[in-house]
Design brief:
This protein is mainly alpha-helical. Helix content is about 35%, strand content about 5%. It folds into two domains: about 45 residues; about 300 residues, di-copper center containing domain from catechol oxidase, CATH 1.10.1280. The strands form four sheets. A three-stranded antiparallel β-sheet has the order 2-3-6, with no helix packed on it. The protein has a two-stranded parallel sheet with strand order 1-9. This is Tyrosinase copper-binding domain-containing protein.
């Protein structure tokens, strides 16, 4: 397509040639009007067209644009929190993050959506359970989880004095390098989140699927209670699924899904041209015929993490979703128009509406409900973070 500037310039030249021929004053007046229109249009183009600097596509550069062009109206951030991959953190940084998570697990619930919530940590799990059927398998999936993770990050910082940013788990490094993802530093018992579940230490309730659920719980994913690490003695009060049961943190690491988490799987996701195709390819079942990087990550860890509803009971949930958010951010940076590209239906089942930038992301009582446009650019207020 010919650039707007070129089209307008050609029109000016054509009009100028007319004005230089033996012509009337009307021709010269037309030229003056056309030049005025040209200046106005060029002002509009410059004010509304995003300028993309590209950088390296890994969170080190931001699409640069006027922040009043239909995106965020809150302006630029004074600083950007740097979200880092777990293994890049120092041991001190890892311990401080785990300390903050355990702090959140000890703080009493404030305004729980689920009456079974005991702690602030529980509140996030309970809220996810209540929203799961609305925010998955739909256009709001990625922006909703982006904001959900931001509220969790803020809780760690404001209530538990965590000084860093939410870390992410880049499982491609494990899927590409190790014969089993059990070798990932994320499962280290000292500087990680503990390892696999121990067989025979947990029995899933027989009525786990008695409550109507959009996505049923898979009992075989619950191997047993996590046997080591900082969360070996963690008691959960919700899940599996929509049930409210008191139980240990469970896992059942499944290495057969490692192929869903490697670099090729991510490349197959980010090559998608439209947001809807990208979102479907990222999110996976039951829309796709087999797991993708979203559900592949959940199922690979297994146990509570494998559940459609109650997966935030495993602290690894937040690092997994931070990495999904990073993949989305990288995809957004590949082309200028993607920074604010959002499509799809609002929920998996009717009644639903088309998701737009003005669609509200429900966060209450964890935080204010905001329109999708406010979370699209992570380098703008209120997000103010980047991935390194």
């Amino acid at each position: 397509m010919q650039p707007v500037e070129d089209v307008l310039n050609s029109l000016v030249i054509d009009q100028l040639s007319l004005s230089l021929s033996p012509s009337s004053l009307q021709m010269r007046s037309s030229l003056l009007i056309l030049c005025t229109l040209l200046a106005a249009v060029m002002h509009t183009v410059n004010a509304s067209t995003p300028v993309y600097d590209g950088k390296d596509g890994h969170g080190h550069g931001a699409p640069s644009r006027d922040h009043n062009n239909g995106g965020s109206h809150h302006g630029q951030c004074t600083t950007l929190l740097e979200r880092k991959e777990w293994r890049v953190l120092t041991d001190e940084g890892k311990h401080d993050y785990i300390r903050a998570v355990k702090c959140l697990q000890k703080l009493p619930a404030k305004r729980p959506v689920n009456p079974a919530s005991v702690s602030r940590f529980d509140e996030f799990q309970g809220f996810h359970i209540s929203m799961a059927e609305r925010v998955h398998l739909a256009g709001q999936f990625l922006p909703w989880h982006r904001q959900f993770l931001k509220r969790y990050e803020l809780a760690l910082q404001n209530e538990c004095h965590y000084k860093g940013a939410a870390p992410y788990w880049d499982w491609t490094q494990d899927a590409d390098e190790f014969s089993s993802i059990k070798g990932s530093p994320i499962f280290d018992p000292v500087t990680g989140f503990g390892g696999d579940g121990v067989s025979g230490t947990y029995t899933i309730p027989a009525n786990v699927n008695s409550v109507p659920q959009l996505v049923p719980t898979i009992p075989s994913k619950f191997k047993g209670c996590v046997g080591d690490g900082p969360f070996a003695n963690l008691t959960l009060h919700m899940g599996p699924g929509k049930l409210n049961t008191t139980h240990c943190l469970t896992r059942g690491i499944d290495n057969t899904l490692r192929v869903r988490l490697n670099s090729a799987a991510v490349a197959n996701t980010t090559k998608q041209r439209t947001f809807e195709d990208f979102r479907v390819q990222l999110e996976g079942q039951p829309v796709t015929d087999s797991p993708r990087i979203h559900d592949g990550g959940h199922f690979s860890v297994g146990g509570d993490m494998s559940n459609f509803y109650s997966s935030p009971g495993d602290p690894i949930f937040y690092l997994h979703h931070a990495n999904l958010d990073r993949v989305w951010w990288n995809w957004q940076q590949m082309l200028p128009h993607r920074l604010y590209e959002i499509t799809g239906r609002s929920t998996i089942n009717p009644p639903y509406v088309n998701v737009t930038l003005d669609f509200p992301l429900i966060m209450a009582p964890l935080g204010p409900t905001v329109p999708i446009r406010e979370v699209m650019d992570i380098h703008s207020v209120p997000s103010c973070y980047t991935y390194v």
